[in-house]
UniProtKB/TrEMBL annotation:
Transmembrane segments: none annotated. It comes from Drosophila rubida. One of its GO terms (biological process) is receptor-mediated endocytosis. This is Palmitoyl-protein thioesterase 1. Belongs to the palmitoyl-protein thioesterase family. The lineage of its organism: Eukaryota, Metazoa, Ecdysozoa, Arthropoda, Hexapoda.
Amino acid sequence: VLPVVLWHGMGDTCCFPFSLGAIKKLIEQHTNGTYVRSLKIGGNLVLDYESGFFIHPNKQVDYVCKQLALDERLTDGYNAIGFSQGGQFLRALAQRCPTPPMRTLISLGGQHQGIFGLPKCPTLKQRSCEYISQLLNYAAYEDWVQQQLVQATYWHDPLHESKYRLQSSFLADINNELYVNERYAENLNKLKKLVLVKFLNDTIVQPRESQWFEFYAPGQDQQIQPLNQSKVYKNLGLDLMLERKRLQLLSVEGDHLSISQDWFLKHLVPLLLD
């Protein structure tokens, strides 16, 4: 069984016993003790927690790329599970850092077409959450906000698409929306499987469809554009992945990351054993 790499979401860390610590144990128990590495960004738990809000994704992806290259147990490849924004960070890793090779990527509630609205901030005080929401609503594409607030880097304003494409410092790049980087599409298509899990009652990710690579049609924020009509479908080679049956879309009842142990064991662990 291949090793498994986990990347936590906003407001979490690598190793809380009630979140990713428990997931790590669960995977180890049901994969015959396979090696599971839960990513700690920055070397300690405080930095790791802060990374979810304040360390630019490009820096995080670069850091993880170097860390995984030093891990001899990953030389022959690994499977990966991203939780919330960890989903799009791992996808960026697959596209930018093909060594060691990622085989299967499972994204749980990842925002692959970004967000337009942040109704809740897990584990943050209300005042901090309100401040972040105001920054996103009024100044998301200002350079200093892009550099200092992680959520701004995948803020996708459908009412100002050209501004988003030009000034998004992370998502527009990994989605091949400003320039088409052939290497990104090639590397993504090296995955054996890309599994996107959408939470049907999600109250954190707006729109929920972003978890399946769908988003509002440009120019409004009501109607969702089907995946096969979006630019990212061809620009990232998702059409090829679907054709080759490498793109799998799963949905589960529940709020953001509300996933039962039974569902995890039934639907996700077999993908790690495959």
